[in-house]
Amino acid sequence: VEAVTLFEVVSMGKQAMQSVVVDWVEAYKQDRNVALLDLINFFIQCSGCQGMVTAEMFQSLYKKDVMQKMTETFDKDNEDYPLIRTGPYWKKFKANFCEFIAVLVQQCQCSILYDNYLMDTIISLLTGLADSMVRAFRHTSTLAAMKLLTAVGSVHLNLEVNKHNAQRLYEVEKRRLSGKRTSYRLDQLERKMKEYEHKLLEIKNMMNAIFKGTFLNRYRDVIPEIRATCIEEIGSWIKTYPDAFLNDSYLKYVGWMLHDKQAEVRLKCLLGLQGIYSRKELVSRMDLFTNRFKDRIVSMPLDKDHEVAVQAMKLLMLMSQNCEDVLSAEDCEMLYQFVYTTHRPLAVAAGEFLYKRLLSHEGDKEVQPKGGGKFGASTDQLKRLIHFFLESELHKHVAYLVDSLWDWAGKFLKDWECMTTLLLKNTEEAGEALSDAQESALIEIILAAVREAAEGHPPVGRGAAKKILSVKEKKIQLEDCTKITEHFSKVLPQLLAKYSTDAQKVANLLQIPQYYDLDVCSTGHLEKHLDALLREIKDIVAKHSDMSVLEASSRTYYVLCREGIAIYSQVDCARTQMIDELMKQLNQLLDCFWQKEGGFCTDAGEISRMHTTLRRVAAFHNAHDLTTWNLYDKTLRFLVFETEHGSLPVLV
Fold it and tell me: Which residues form a coiled coil (predicted)?
C-alpha cells in the first residue's frame, strides 16, 4: 500500500476505508516495517507536511531525529493544514480521519494489536508529534492519539464482556463436572480467561501510555482546539468506560478546564458532564466532583458566550434531576431568574428548569390536589406560577416568562377554561379565590399566553425576525386561534363585568379580542356573546377616563369592525350609537362651557367633565374616522380662544 493511498482513502470517505485497512493489515503481516512506514507517512501527510519518512530514516534514526527532519521540511510560514481548513470537504476529512483510526484498531484487535510492535510504534510516533513545536503536528497527532485511546477503550470493553462470559461458562462447566477431576473444556476456558486477562493488561498499558504521553501534555496546550479535543474525548471516556475513568483522578481535568478562557473548551467540558450526569448510575460516584465544582457550574449561565450559558443551564437541570439536594434554594432562585433573559435559548433552558423544579407534578400526575376540582393540577400549577411571578418583581416582563415556559408548559398555559374559571370564582369560596394582586398577575399571564398562541412567535426583543411557521405549527396556531375565539367570546363579557371598575385589569382584558379569528366570531351561536361584549365595552367607556382603557376600547371596536366580515354591521351599529352619545354629551358640555359674554365656564366640575369627554373622543378619533360628526368645527373654537387669550384651563 502506498503512503499516498491511505491519505486518499481518508479523503474519499468510508466506503473504501474498510477494504484498504484490511489490505494494510495483510501488508503488515508480510512486512511490518514497510507497512508501518506507510502509516507513519500517512500521519505526516494528514498534518499538512510535504516531507516523507524514508525506509533509511525509519530504520536508522531515533524518533526525535525523525521529528526534527520533518519539522525542517515543514513550511513554517504556512499555518494551514487539513484539520483547520473550512468547507464541507475538510469537515468530512476530519470525520473520516477519526473513522480511519477506529477501523484500524477494529481490524487489528484479533491479531497484530498485541504484537508489542505496532501499537508501541504508533503511540511513540503520536507522542513525539504531539510534543512538536509545529502546531499542525501537535493538533493532528493529539486528535489521532485521543481517538486511538477511544478505539482501544472499545476493545477493552469487548474483552471485559468476553472475559465475563467465559467466567460464567467456566462456573457452569465446573458445577456440571463436579465429580470429575479434570476436563478438556475446563482447561480450555481457563486458558481463554488467562488470555483475556493478558490482553486486558496490555490494553490498559496502551491506554495509560496514550493518556500520560499525550493527554497530560496537551490538555493545557496553548491552542484552544487542541485543549477542546482533549476535553471532548476524556468526557467520552468517562461516560463510556466508567470503570476505568470515572474517578476523581480523571474528573479533575474536566473540572479545571471549566475555567478555561476559551468558550469552545468550556463548552466541551459542559457537554461531557451532561453525558455523565444524565445517567443516574454514574451520578452516585460524582459526589466529590459535584461538591468541588458545583459553584463554578452554577455561575456559568452568566457566561459571556451564549452557547456555554445554555449548556450550563441544561447541565444544572440534569444535576437537579439526578443529584438529590445538590442545589440550594438560593441557587434555584438565582437560576429561575434566567427566564427573563433576552437570549431565548437560555431562557427556554431556564424555563425547563423552572417548570420541572417548581411547577410540574412529575411522578404524581394522577393525584389531584385537594379542593382543586375539575382543574386541580392546572390550578395548582397556575397558583405556583402566579406566586413566582409576583415574587420575582419583574412585572413588566410577563411575556418573557410565558415564552420561556411555552415549550414545557404550553398545555397548562393554554388551559383558558381553567384560568378564567379561577378568575370568576366568588370570594366566598374560601381557599380558592385569588387576591387582587394575583388576579392582576393572572390576567397578564392570560394575555401573554393568548398572544404567544395566536402569533406563533416569541415576543418583541427576544429572538430574531418572525420565524416562518411549518405546516404543523401553522395548523396548531389556527386551532389555538379558534379555541381562543370560542372561549373568550363567551367569557370575556363576564370578566369585563366583574372587573369593570379596575382600569389595569380592563385594559389588559380588552386586548384579547385583537387575537380573535373573526370568521369564527361570525358563527350564529357566538352572536349573542358579541352583543354582550359590545354592551360591556360601552359601559366601560362611560365609566373610565384612563387613556389606556379608552384606547383599548377604541382598538377593540377597530379590530371587530373590519369591513367584509359578517359581524361588521352589528359592530358598526354599536360603534355609531356609542359615538353619537359621546358627541351628544360633548355638545351639551360645549353649550354650557362657552358663555355668552365671550368667556368660558370656570366651574371645576364642568371643566373636569369636559376633560373626561374630550379624552374619550380623542381615544376614538385616533382609531376611527369621525368626519361624519364634524369634530373639527366643535374643537376649533378651543384653538382660536387659546391663541387669542391663552387662558384656557390646563385640563382642557
Answer: 179-206
CA distance 209 to 229: 18
Query: Would you say 147 and 98 are in contact if contact means Cβ atoms under 8 Å apart?
Result: yes
pTM of the model: 0.86
My answer on whether 16 and 38 are in the same domain is yes
Res. 69: pLDDT tops 70: no
Residue with the three cell numbers 408548559: 409
- Indicate the DSSP class of residue 594: B
Contact 310, 352 (CB under 8 A): no
The answer to whether residue 74 scores a pLDDT higher than 80 is: no
Q: What are phi and psi of 595, to 5 degrees?
A: -90, 160
Domain that holds residue 357: 331-361+376-426+433-463
Q: Helices 329-336 & 344-354, crossing angle to 10 degrees? A: 140
Give every CB contact of residue 112 below 8 A, 6+ residues apart in sequence: 25, 28, 29, 32, 118
Overall domain count for the chain: 4
Q: Is residue 78 part of a domain?
A: yes
Evaluate whether residue 482 is within a structural domain.
no
Query: How far apart are alpha carbons 539 and 249 in whole angstroms?
Result: 74
Of residues 635 and 502, more confidence is placed in 502
Decide: 587 and 545 in contact? Cβ < 8 Å: no
Residues 75 and 197 reside in one and the same domain = yes
Query: Three-state DSSP class for 181?
Result: coil
Cell of 194: 488467562
CA distance 99 to 437: 61
Residues 76 and 163 in one domain: yes
In a domain, 643, yes or no: yes
Give the other-Cβ count within 10 Å of 180's Cβ.
8
| CATH label of the domain that carries residue 208 | 1.20.58
Tens digits of residue pLDDT in 422-470: 999 865 554 567 899 999 999 999 999 999 999 988 898 887 666 788 8
Three-state DSSP class for residue 600 = strand
Average the pLDDT over 257-286 and give the result: 96
Give 476-526 as a DSSP string: HHHHHHHHHHHHHHHHHHHHHHHTTT-HHHHHHHTTGGGGS-HHHHTSGGG
What would the grid cell of residue 166 be? 467465559
